[in-house]
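re: ur question from yesterday

yeah so i grabbed the chain u mentioned. its 336 aa long if i counted rite. heres the sequnce exactly as i have it in my notes:
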Amino acid sequence: MDYFDSFDDCYDIIVVDSSYDSNKALNKELVSSHKRARITYLSSYSPDTYFYDKLLDSLRHVKTKYCVMCADDDFIVPNGISQAVDFLDKNEEFIVAHGHYMSFWLEKDSSGASKFYYSLPYPFSPSVQPIRLRKAKAFYGVYRTPVFRMFVKEIAENIDNLVFAEIMYYSLTSLYGKEKQLDVLYYAREYMAKDIRFRYETLGDIIERGAYDEKYRRYKQCLSRHVMKTLGVTPSEASRLIDEFIDTWKEQTFTHPKQRMLRAISAVLRKAGVYNTARFFYRRALLGGSDASQFLAKLEDKNSKYYSDFYRIKSYVLTHNIAIINAPAKASKRAS
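ran it thru and got these structure tokens back, copy pasting raw so excuse formatting
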């Protein structure tokens, strides 16, 4: 909130709070202390409210042409939002626009001072055409509001788990329009000390408890309607395309020997207490020499177009001591 209050532009912000009552009291007080942005505070959700149910409900309050979602521990850059909106205004065939992403955290040095570190989110790989598993970062892009609302409504009414909800979200994005990644620092994500898989059910969990067939049936039934509508194919062809897509996705993320090997190695690394360090070295090796790696190197260059937005985020993270964790410094870059 302080970050957005520091800009000249005034934003319409909807805070969707499903925390426990003790936290809600603190959050409400925090929201009320920020006068610059136009904030709608929604707190009628319990901690176990399904994510897409509360997202769909909150969209009733959105009156703007475009909308964007931001996690409560992340930063979305106003300059990136402005460029995305400008692009979408000029390119009607695109439904979402965004830019470059970074992750960040703080560590304490031997003197107790906080040091700012940053890296890149894990690169996701595209799947088969014509339905393509989008890069996860598009989830936080600037969407045309009617399209975004339709996606969320379909998921909330048809999908009851986050695994297939995420796949549905990216499937619908690839079917209904184009996605644009702009050359601008757009989003900064707080690095999570614990893997997200410890907080939410995974594909492996669904398979192990014998629920996969039913979850997939509901996903396929919903998506088939959209495949037939957008691609003009028969029900049998839509079924074949979705089966092909999901088989490829499962192999890439779960059943391929490489993935089984990585899961086994990860389990050993977690027991040894070095999982975070190994993960960052692995990511860095994947990104070496890539365009993403070159972007990362430019963030601290005072002559680059990314520097002012990067420096502002860094300053706020350091000021508020956000995201202090035990993360590996050598696998990333430290901002001086």
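noticed a couple things. The mean pLDDT is 81. also The CA atoms of residues 212 and 239 lie 17 Å apart.
anyway ttyl
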